[in-house]
Amino acid sequence: MARKPNTRAEDLPKSQATIYPEKPLCSHDGCFLESLCKVKTLYGWANLCEKHYQAHHQAQADETCKRLGLETIAQKRAWLKNHWPQMQAFDTAPAREPGDDDEPLPR
Ligand SMILES: [Zn+2]
After folding, report:
1. pLDDT digit string, tens, across residues 2-28
2. Distance CA 71, CA 76 (A)
3. Could you tell me where the DSSP H helices lie in the chain?
4. Which residues surround ligand 1, an ion (CB under 5 A)?
């Protein structure tokens, strides 16, 4: 049953009068955006907006690549092929690079 516009929550049956709490703000200092999700960090749980959520995971990925000694994209792709075979389904890189065969390079 669709809710009529301008209907007060008190006038509705309890099942239709659910009021959701406001979303919390991002936990980063100076960021006042609505949080996207809650993420467990080294220091506890943090509500993160989309920008800080991506930054959090990019920092983790950079740290992991540094720990594994992976610097170039080719090294990262090779590591993924060895350790995560499912990645090949998403690998759209060409099978050969320009100049790998006798075909002349485009000018
Ligand atoms: Zn934020």
Report:
1. 545 666 767 777 777 677 778 899 999
2. 7
3. 50-68, 73-83
4. 26, 28, 31, 49, 52
